[in-house]
Design goal:
Blueprint lengths: L10 E6 L10 H6 L5 H20 L21 E8 L2 E8 L5 E8 L8 H4 L2 H13 L5 H20 L8 E5 L4 E6 L5 E2 L2 E2 L2 E9 L2 E8 L3
Antiparallel strand pairs: 1-3, 2-3, 4-10, 5-6, 6-9, 7-8, 9-10
Length: about 220
């Protein structure tokens, strides 16, 4: 599902249900979730199983994936990537850093956001566009899709900047054809000698999930 949203240079591995939950963790990983609830430990293990499978496909030996600043996963040198997990689904996407500057992926259960959440994560312009989209395509929970896109934006942004990006600092325009554009409302990262003013992404809704992905090229 995630793979169809990303360039062919990206290796994406996903798991539905609890596949991979019994995969052994490295000791330093296990220590991080030793006191976590079962659901957290299970998702932590499954998404790392996905990531290590992606590493193997790229010819990189399996190794610990430890959270760094603001929880961003620490990837082996020469790799860029992103992980996501929600109830019943985990995925990891990895690419050689020479092929892409950054990646961001996110998946969410395809249902409406809890009441009161949308105003805290959306700009007035975004909320108005969501209303128009919902009138044309009521089968899509556009509020949840917007939230997922914001998550993907942040995951692509942070490795390039090392800085926080607020929900209100990117104006996202979703389109019905499975694409979106995130206009950055603060100075964007420098990539390949140019300052980015937006990210382009893709989305899908299937199997009870919505998923979004962004791939940032060097050029």
């Amino acid at each position: 599902m995630i793979e169809e949203l990303l360039p062919q240079t990206v290796v994406a591995v996903e798991a539905f249900g609890h596949d991979g939950a019994d995969t052994p963790l490295f000791p330093e990983e296990a220590a991080l979730v030793a006191r976590a609830v079962e659901k957290r430990r299970r998702e932590f293990a499954v998404v790392r199983s996905c990531a290590r499978s992606a590493m193997e496909k790229l010819g990189v030996p399996p190794q610990p994936i430890l959270p760094g600043e603001r929880g961003a996963p620490g990837w082996p040198p020469g790799l860029a990537g992103s992980m996501t997990h929600c109830d019943g689904y985990c995925a990891a996407a990895l690419v050689r850093a020479a092929d892409l500057a950054s990646l961001g992926i996110d998946a969410e259960a395809h249902g409406p956001l809890p009441e009161g959440v949308l105003p805290s994560v959306s700009l007035p312009s975004e909320a108005e566009r969501l209303r128009r989209l919902a009138a044309r395509r009521p089968d899509i929970h556009w509020d949840r899709l917007l939230f997922s896109a914001k998550e993907s934006v942040y995951k692509a942004w942070f490795p390039l900047t090392g800085k926080w990006l607020d929900f209100m600092e990117a104006d996202i325009e979703l389109t019905e054809d499975g694409a979106f554009r995130a206009a950055l409302l603060v100075p964007g990262p420098l990539v390949g000698g140019r300052r980015l003013d937006h990210f382009a992404g893709r989305w899908t809704a299937q199997r009870g999930l919505v998923a979004t992905a962004i791939a940032v090229s060097h050029a």
